[in-house]
Amino acid sequence: MDAEVTSDTAAQFYDVVSPTGQTTLERRRLTSTLGFGIYDLMPTNPGDPYAPELSFRLRLRYDADYGATPGTSDPTNFNSFVPGFQPQAVDLMYGYLEGRRFLRGTLGFKLGRQYVTDVLGWWSFDGGEVSVTTPVYVKAEAYGGLEQRGGLPLSTPRFEADGVWRGDRNGFDPLLYPSFQPAEVAPAFGVALESVGFTWLHSRLTYRRVYNTGIANESDFTSGLIAPVTYDGWRISSERLGYALDASAPGLGGAKGGLIYDFYRARITSAYGSLDAYLGQKVTLSADYDYYVPSFDADSIWNFFAGYPRNDVGLRANLDLDRRLSVAANAHVRIFSVQTGPFTTGLPASEGINTSLVPGVVAADYFPAHALSFDEGGEVMARWRTSTTRIAFIARGDFGSQGDRVGGDVTGEQLLETRYVVGGRVGVWQWKDDLEQDREATGFQYVLNAGYLFAPRCKGAIEWEHDINGLVGQRFRLLLTLTLGAGSSASIGSLPGTVK
Amino acid sequence: MNPWSKLALAALPILMAFVVVPLALAESAPATVHGLAPLPNDQQVAANLLPPGAFSPDTGPSDVIYPTQHLTLRFNHAKHLGKEIGATCKTCHGAAYRSRSTSDQLVPTGEVCDACHSTDHSDTTNVKPGDEAMGQCAFCHLGYKNGDGNRVAVLELPRANLVFNHKVHVDRNIACTQCHGAISQIELATRDQLPRMRGCFHCHEAPNAASRGNAKSACETCHLPGRDRGTRIQTMFASGSLQPPRWLHNAEHTPDFIERHKWVAADDSQFCANCHKEDFCTDCHDGRVRPRNIHPNDYLNMHPIEARMATQRCTSCHEEQSFCLTCHLRVGVAESSPPVAKDSGRFHPPKNIWSDPPRQPGHHSFEAEQNLNACVSCHTERDCVACHGGAGVGGGFDPHPSGFLGGCATQMRRNPRPCFVCHAPTDPVLSQCR
């Protein structure tokens, strides 16, 4: 049996200034995690490929901003209070018991707070998962429990569907902040079928349904005047089906593809495809397509708003000059559809029909004439690395109707005497925001960092960032990190050696 | 001197020039020395002599898995395995037939050579050379010079960074050539004759529970277990960090892999989990420290333009109605910011562009239709309902797209809450969605 304890701590000091300079947030952040793992909980016979494995892993996180004023977290202070903001939050990132290869390799399970990662996204829930690996190259998986939701104990909102301002309303006057929705448990379940065993083909079909429960406020624009109307009951939060595929032929190339179908919206909300051609051992050429439509929690009104998909078409190339040096480049075009006429929803007073709201304008002059708009971009990246040195370069440019951004960074890191790390980053970026007045700048930035590996798996580091641009002057950021790790591990007994 | 003698004397220089000198030169030309390279005169090794799974042209095996060797011996496998000598693999590498670990010593000791080379390696502090040329130290030990005594250059064969049990494979009648290639036609065996991962998959391509006996395809079958036990295999070695080859899931970690990794993880996250534990993913996807390789320096100033252009998909790592909105509320740029923080500035184009017709780029509806996520990072639904609600001020600004009525009944049945935000439950217009 092996055990390990790990910890990561980061202290960050910087200021955030609003665009006009009227508001400054002094961010004095401390984030610390504590991880704990026990492995090989069951006695195993070394070399037995069917030996079951049992392990337990857990990680807690403390995340604080000591720069926040007390009023921002005081629900009785209407002038300063920010609903949902937690100046000192503790969450359980994960904590689960995992079994693998039970019943001669066929059964696996997880119990506790865990992640599910697939084409439907990066997701977390509290509950159980069981998987069965069959002899016919297919694995079946089923899971169920409660989605991790912000506002509930030891939880963050990171994993819930977007579109609902939601959190812990304990201590709130129900008349205040009615648009801030109370967090309630969200039952969820999912199933998946996945291919296993092949190196040249893999695919996963996955389905997940999440429910919203409890009370949701509805008429939320009369804050403080009347109690909000509420809706109470089980309802869909999200229901989606996803599929992803990956195939490769070592001498030729590869292909990837996937899609998500949203049952609530009754449409495909994401699809992608990528083709890679291997030209010799050093060059890979690729063509990509990506389709995306924003989708939100079914409690959100934004699913009902008109929106057009993004269609990204891109070309990529990668050149491995040798085992240390690689260069990659890509270019893409994003294609949007544009509304060129009034919608015909069938509902009364649909916009464009009701041009009486905009005197003197007729529908033909109200919309753009062109049905498509385009954004463009591209980048070049290079990387040179050895076991002690890493140098990376990136330059990119993005151009669109919202503005543009062009710039590049050079990053270097060097390990000295197996324990000292020094590094730096220098960048120049020019950007222009066409959706804000007078928001464009050319900035120069540099970062210097140094670290010391004072024991195996233990490192302390300091980083200084200095950003300079004509719009906001100079900004500074100080980052201190401490990584600790210790444990007993049987695998360390098989350290590489040299026959001499 | 008779004429014949004169003729013979005259012919002597010619004979010297055309016969003796060439012969002498031929004698002095260096003969090919065997065993210094895989093939004589360092010829390129043909693909059919390399281990199964090698590419053509071959770039060699991973130098992370098989660290660089320093070979200080010359050895001719082809000669020893040929009819003249008739040795077999087992003659010299008998230990391989019993080996259960890559840390076992599989290169024969000098004593194995003694029987034929008339040397005596029984005492390595006092090795005795043989009488014949092939018994001399310099015959095998490269760089050895007379007078070096008992000192020879060190042979460095770092162990492979693998889990490998030779005995199991030998017991299954897997021949040496099935992993090491045509050694019998190779002179000096180098790293190039070590097994290729792609070749291993000829057998190790099966699910954990399936049909090919114990030749499991799980990564930890062959790769060393992770020292940091959250990962299944060890990836960091003195010889470098382990990276997936291009042909495996198209997952070569190229400089732009950060932009492509989502497709690999979306299809097979367990493949990623072999080398990365959750913490590696959460550092970005649920992180609290800005990753520099994703967001460049001065990102606080730059992020609005990136969010508007959606060059990166913010929602991959951030929940907009919590992560983004909370900060925007605090710094005063959101519509619902608390009074003490609310900034008096305008963060959108002037009204005549942002709200008034025509609906060109820069108009809020044009921008919302292309990137609603950007709106959601600052606005709560109240901000939109104020104008787009079903009654009152915004009664005329219907946000629904064409064809909305076709699916609204299903949506309303499954979750009517968003309908009731803008329309009172008794609103007659809802009857069209019931």
Order of helices and strands of chain B: HHHHHEHHHEEHHHHHHHHHHH
Instruction: Write down the overall geometry of chain A.
Output: globular
Mean pLDDT of chain B: 87
- The number of helical segments of chain A is 2
Question: What is the count of β-strands of chain B?
Answer: 3
State the main characteristics.
heterodimer; A: about 500 residues; mainly beta; 22-stranded antiparallel beta barrel; two-stranded parallel sheet; disordered C terminus; B: about 425 residues; mainly alpha; two-stranded antiparallel sheet
Can you walk through the features of this model?
The complex is a heterodimer of chains A (500) and B (434). Chain A has helices at 102-105, 363-366, and strands at 2-17, 24-39, 53-65, 88-101, 107-118, 121-133, 138-147, 166-167, 181-182, 187-195, 201-212, 215-217, 230-232, 235-249, 253-262, 267-279, 283-292, 310-320, 325-337, 372-385, 389-400, 403-416, 420-433, 440-455, 458-469, 473-488, 498-499. Chain A has 500 residues and is an all-beta fold. In chain A, the strands form three sheets. Chain A has a 22-stranded antiparallel beta barrel. A two-stranded parallel ribbon of chain A has the order 8-9. Chain A is globular and about 80 Å long. The model of chain A is unreliable at 490-500 (pLDDT under 50). With 434 residues, chain B is mostly helical. In chain B, strands 2-3 form a two-stranded antiparallel ribbon.
Which helices and strands appear, and what pairs or packs with what?
The complex is a heterodimer of chains A (500) and B (434).
Chain A: E1 2-17, E2 24-39, E3 53-65, E4 88-101, H1 102-105, E5 107-118, E6 121-133, E7 138-147, E8 166-167, E9 181-182, E10 187-195, E11 201-212, E12 215-217, E13 230-232, E14 235-249, E15 253-262, E16 267-279, E17 283-292, E18 310-320, E19 325-337, H2 363-366, E20 372-385, E21 389-400, E22 403-416, E23 420-433, E24 440-455, E25 458-469, E26 473-488, E27 498-499
Parallel strand pairs in A: 8-9
Antiparallel strand pairs in A: 1-2, 1-26, 2-3, 3-4, 4-5, 5-6, 6-7, 7-10, 10-11, 11-14, 12-13, 14-15, 15-16, 16-17, 17-18, 18-19, 19-20, 20-21, 21-22, 22-23, 23-24, 24-25, 25-26
Chain B: H1 3-28, H2 77-81, H3 89-93, H4 110-117, H5 137-140, E1 157-158, H6 166-171, H7 177-180, H8 197-200, E2 236-237, E3 240-241, H9 257-267, H10 269-273, H11 278-285, H12 299-309, H13 320-331, H14 351-354, H15 364-370, H16 372-376, H17 381-388, H18 404-414, H19 417-422
Antiparallel strand pairs in B: 2-3
